[in-house]
Amino acid sequence: MARVSVLLCSQDSRLRGALPEAEITREGVEILERGAHDVVVIDSASDVPTVETLRSTVGARRREIFVVFVSDHVTTGDGEQAWRESVDLVVHSDDLARLKALIETGRVEKQRLYGRFQTLVNERGDG
Predict the structure, then answer these.
(1) 15: buried, middle or exposed (CB in 10 Å: 19+, 13-18, 0-12)?
(2) CB neighbours (10 Å) of residue 94?
(3) Model confidence band, residue 2 (pLDDT cutoffs 50, 70, 90)
(4) Which residues, 6+ apart, have CB-to-CB distance to 115 below 8 Å?
(5) Rounded mean pLDDT of 55-69?
(6) N or C: at which end does the chain have fewer Cβ atoms within 10 angstroms?
(7) Considering only CA atoms, which of 15, 2, 6 is closest in space to residue 94?
(8) 118-124: Cβ within 8 A, 24+ apart
(9) Which strand ranges, in their side-by-side order, compose the sheet holding 23-25?
């Protein structure tokens, strides 16, 4: 993954193996509030306050973070499931070998979409 700061809110050894460069935490609220990460990866066993902090983050700060939810109960890339989870990307646990590539592709797509939005906000002077 190209120079991206990743926060992994999980103790799952499979996820840690898929993202060895990630900062690992069980309870990431304080780290999230510092705003130092581009990507945050959570799983179904993640700390509830961390998940709620991510879900309640709004506006420009939320658009800056690419949030990934990993679970055995989602279909990789399903936009409706991602929307329900309030994340940018859902990944099934069986797809961890492709996790870095999925994140890179997803971040590029998000930047394409929100880049246009941010341009309009800046032009209006709202940003």
Answers:
(1) buried
(2) 10
(3) low
(4) none
(5) 79
(6) C
(7) 15
(8) 118/63
(9) 23-25, 6-9, 39-43, 66-71, 89-92
